[in-house]
Specification:
alpha+beta, five-stranded mixed sheet, four-stranded antiparallel sheet, 9 strands, globular
C-alpha cells in the first residue's frame, strides 16, 4: 500500500551489482518489495537466424517468475512459455536493443535473464532497469578484454510503471494499486527523454489526453531518478 508516499514518488529503489559470481553482469534490482535477479551472459557468436554477411550483434532477454515469488505458488514454465511471459521477454529485449548500436558489437550475443524472486508490482519495469545495469557491466568487461572495440551503448534507459487510481495519476504502482487501477501504464525512456515504450491501457473508463501527458511527465521524473542510481 502507498503509505507516506506522494503520488509522484517511487518506492525505495536499489541496485546491488555483482550479485552473482559467474555472469558477465549481474544485479539484484529492488523496487520496494519487488526483487529481481538480472544477469547478462555473453556468447561470442551471432544468432543462428542472422545472415552471415551481417556484421552486428544481438541483445535478447528471458524472464521468469520463480515459484514462490507470489502469494500463491506459480508453476515453473518448463515446456511452454505463457503469453504473458513472452510479452514481457520481448519488451525487455527490444527496450535494451533500443539503447545499443548493434553494429558496434559484431558476433556478440548478450542474453539478459530476469528472474523475479519476489513480486509486488512492476516486475517488467524493474527487469528492464536491472537489465540495463547488467548489460552495461557486461559491456565494460568486454571492452577491457578487447572483445568489443568500442562501447555500443548509446545512452542509458529506464522504465517505470504508472496508473490512474480514483482519478489520480500515481507513479510506481505496487500490486495492490496495480490490481485496482483504472488505467495501467508501463513507460520506457532513454536518458534524453526519447520514448522506447509507452504502454497505456484503460482497464475500464477511457482516460483524457491531459491525463496521458501527466502520466508521461510523472514517469519521466521517476525514470530520471532511477537512471541517477545506476
Amino acid at each position: 500500500m502507498r503509505e507516506n508516499r506522494k503520488n509522484n514518488e517511487t518506492r525505495e529503489i536499489k541496485f546491488t551489482r555483482n550479485y552473482t559470481k559467474h555472469a558477465m553482469g549481474s544485479v539484484l534490482a529492488e523496487f520496494g518489495d519487488t526483487k529481481v535477479i538480472v544477469t547478462a551472459s555473453v556468447e561470442n557468436a551471432k544468432p543462428k537466424w542472422m545472415a552471415k554477411e551481417e556484421e552486428k550483434g544481438w541483445v535478447t532477454a528471458e524472464y521468469s517468475l520463480l515459484p514462490a515469488s507470489t502469494s500463491t505458488r506459480c508453476q515453473r514454465e518448463r515446456t511452454k512459455v505463457s503469453g504473458r511471459t513472452q510479452e514481457i521477454q520481448r519488451l525487455i529485449g527490444r527496450s535494451l536493443r533500443a539503447c545499443v548500436d548493434l553494429n558496434k558489437m559484431p558476433d556478440v550475443t548478450i542474453t539478459i535473464d530476469a528472474d523475479v524472486i519476489q513480486a509486488d508490482g512492476g516486475t517488467r519495469t524493474a527487469s528492464i532497469c536491472g537489465g540495463f545495469v547488467a548489460l552495461s557491466d557486461a559491456v565494460e568487461k568486454l571492452l577491457k578484454e578487447g572483445i568489443l572495440k568500442e562501447n555500443p551503448i548509446i545512452e542509458p534507459i529506464g522504465a517505470i510503471s504508472a496508473g490512474i487510481i480514483d482519478g489520480e495519476v500515481r507513479l510506481d504502482l505496487d500490486y495492490s494499486e496495480d490490481s485496482t487501477a483504472q488505467v495501467d501504464s508501463n513507460i520506457v525512456l532513454t536518458q534524453s527523454g526519447k520514448i522506447v515504450e509507452f504502454q497505456t491501457t484503460a482497464e475500464g473508463e477511457a482516460y483524457e489526453y491531459d491525463q496521458m501527458l501527466e502520466i508521461f511527465n510523472v514517469a519521466k521524473k521517476g525514470i530520471d531518478e532511477i537512471i541517477a542510481k545506476y
